[in-house]
Design goal:
single chain; alpha/beta; Rossmann fold; 2 domains; six-stranded parallel beta sheet; 47% helix; globular
């Protein structure tokens, strides 16, 4: 979103307002965005601890703190994902009449989003199901998709060359994100000799699994070793890996699915089972469209992984899944959300749904 807003003529100044837990401080700093922080933490558990007492106190303290930040910064508009950290900011923004766009990336909104949606002036969502779920908020809802990086920034030939992959080699990309990556690593380790007989494998292991993956690679024969590429993280090369691959095997986070569909990549999705059902709901939308197959977390093992690669050798299935994925893609999502934010910031009428749809689909100038 920051990149999309900064690419505009007369780009706005950006300020990040967050809490005291998570990765945002480093990520925001690296993106060269000024960061202000509130006293409260993001909520990740409901365990009984001292924080069960302290978190309500932090929330109460954060409301006047947010009001002070808003009074100093004087924002023309606020963009939020509507989580717990947004609550004090939106409470403070109401009396100041600062317009708010809330973006929700999951098909099934969580409790904090349902609460904060009532304070938004416009809703941007990734799925129609989320628009229906938030309709009671009485605010206009636009299906923008999930803001992602520019998937046209590198061609397939360039991506393959960057990763030293043969131009026509069947390739799979496996990554579990930060949540329960061990399930994926164990499946790859057990299936590796069978996998490299058929395909090239790009495997994001996380730091904890990287050494074991390297050891497994060394046990392969010399001619097969080159077909297995483990990485602790891909970071700047993640786009190249996505563009270069023929099949993605991973979790069902909103950003992952948005990039997969924008690029038209068939997917085998293993929803993370401990995310309040969000990932399962996201995955089911792709599966219903024919863009993905779902494997339950407890059923994902070496045999399931090897079976998934069969999609690459079934041309009608692979082609149909790619087309279905592409039909769901919204590569212009960041621009669509930016259009809503800037309309409110400049006190203009919101674009109509057809215009936002065209921007999100990447068919509008």
């Amino acid at each position: 979103m920051a990149r999309s807003l900064r690419d505009r003529p007369n780009a706005p100044d950006l300020v990040w307002l967050g809490g005291h837990r998570g990765l945002e401080a480093d990520l925001v700093r690296d993106a060269r965005i000024r960061c202000r922080r509130l006293a409260l933490r993001s909520l990740r558990t409901v365990d009984v601890s001292i924080h069960a007492v302290l978190d309500p106190v932090r929330l109460a303290v954060s409301v006047p703190q947010a009001a002070a930040v808003l009074a100093i910064e004087k924002p023309a508009a606020i963009l939020t994902t509507g989580g717990y950290v947004a609550v004090p900011t939106l409470i403070a923004a109401g009396p100041m009449r600062i317009p708010v766009v809330l973006w929700e990336g999951n098909a099934t909104p969580g409790r904090a989003v349902r609460l904060t949606a009532r304070w938004a002036d416009a809703l941007a969502v990734s799925y129609e199901a989320a628009a229906a779920a938030l309709a009671t908020a009485g605010r206009p809802a636009f299906v923008t998709g999930t803001p992602i990086r520019d998937v046209t920034a590198i061609s397939r030939a360039e991506a393959r060359a960057r990763l030293d992959l043969p131009a026509d080699a069947p390739t799979i990309l496996i990554f579990g994100g930060s949540q329960a990556v061990r399930r994926f690593n164990a499946a790859v380790a057990a299936a590796l000799p069978r996998l490299v007989e058929r395909v090239h494998v790009l495997h994001v292991t996380g730091d904890s699994g990287y050494a074991a993956a390297l050891a497994g690679r060394e046990q392969l024969s010399t001619d097969r070793r080159v077909r297995y590429r483990p990485y602790p993280f891909l970071r700047e090369d993640m786009l190249a890996a996505l563009v270069a691959t023929d099949l993605v095997i991973g979790r069902a986070g909103s950003s992952t699915l948005a990039e997969v569909t924008a690029l038209g990549i068939p997917a085998v999705i293993v929803p993370y089972p401990h995310a309040a059902g969000h990932q399962a709901a996201n995955a089911e939308i792709l599966a219903a469209a024919g863009a993905a197959r779902i494997v339950a977390d407890e059923a994902f093992d070496a045999d399931a992984l090897v079976a998934a690669t069969g999609i690459l050798f079934d041309e009608p299935t692979r082609t149909a899944m790619a087309a279905a994925a592409r039909s769901l893609g919204r590569p212009g999502a960041a621009r669509a959300v930016a259009a809503l934010v800037l309309a409110l910031a400049e006190r203009r009428p919101l674009p109509d749904a057809a215009e936002i749809e065209a921007i999100a689909r990447g068919v509008a100038a």
